[in-house]
């Protein structure tokens, strides 16, 4: 049942929110391309010494916050670089100014601006995603979605092909920044790798989810994402026709996000559950 405080958005309001998300993500991506210095420096580190923040992460978050506050003053904002602004509308913009900061730091061409609008508490355990856009900065590609309105890639509706069996599936994943988490993730990978075509670690969960949405990879899973890493990509994948979930019947949360379709998804979930890929001990 819908929570009484969760606002209902009409079709055209959802479309307008998706268009704003797209404009925010694309214009922020243009700023990153224009202002990227020759040598990117680490400004500080966050969860561990290998989890960097650059000046650009903060500059782009400020840019997004300023624009959202001007255009949607009643909405809340939750951002990777620390913005946690409560709103009064029951809606929250969940933003990742650079998803794939390590790639941005090294000049590896795979980072994205991720913008989503959610209803309800800004927590993946209970939020309702409404609108989303992911802009891949280096490739200039953009994916969007609005609830019930499908997903697009570069303006065209995403149409998925029949799913591949697990043995022929290309699977994207990612790793956390803490050594103990990585040890656990490596153990899970050992269980999975013999059963699939291959694995990809591209370095941006938002892009991984969009690639899964359009079939450029077959499956995606990752333990321990932050809400802003997957808020937009998960809506894009589910609106494209994928199932996006956690393990053991859970919703997609910071514990685990899995995206895929068909028998291959069922088998992937079985392997991840048997390998205790959501083990709280790590
Ligand atoms: C990271 C990326 C990466 C994933 C990490 C995330 P960030 O986001 O999405 O693909 O594996 O778990 O933290 O830190 O670059 O915004």
SSE blueprint:
Elements lengths: L10 H25 L8 E2 L6 E2 L1 H17 L4 E4 L4 E2 L5 E9 L1 H6 L5 E8 L8 E9 L4 E6 L4 E3 L2 E2 L12 E4 L5 H14 L5 E3 L4 H10 L4 E5 L3 H14 L2 E3 L10 E5 L1 H13 L8
Helix pairs in contact: 1-2, 5-6
This protein binds D-MYO-inositol-1-phosphate.
The site of D-MYO-inositol-1-phosphate (IPD) has 14 residues, from strand 5.
Put the structure in a nutshell.
The chain has 282 residues and is an alpha+beta fold. It has 2 domains: 11-157, Fructose-1,6-Bisphosphatase, subunit A, domain 1 (Fructose-1,6-Bisphosphatase, Chain A, domain 1), CATH 3.30.540; 166-274, D-Maltodextrin-Binding Protein, domain 2.
Can you give a write-up of this model?
This protein folds into 2 domains: 147 residues, Fructose-1,6-Bisphosphatase, subunit A, domain 1 (Fructose-1,6-Bisphosphatase, Chain A, domain 1, 2-Layer Sandwich); 109 residues, 3-Layer(aba) Sandwich (D-Maltodextrin-Binding Protein, domain 2). With 282 residues, it is an alpha+beta fold. The model has no long low-confidence stretch (mean pLDDT 95). Helix 1 packs antiparallel against helix 2 and helix 5 packs parallel to helix 6. The longest helix is centred in the N-terminal third of the chain and has 25 residues. The protein has an 8-stranded mixed β-sheet with strand order 4-3-5-6-7-8-9-10, sandwiched between helices. The chain contains 7 helices and 15 strands. Bound molecules: D-MYO-inositol-1-phosphate. The site of D-MYO-inositol-1-phosphate (IPD) has 14 residues, from strand 5.
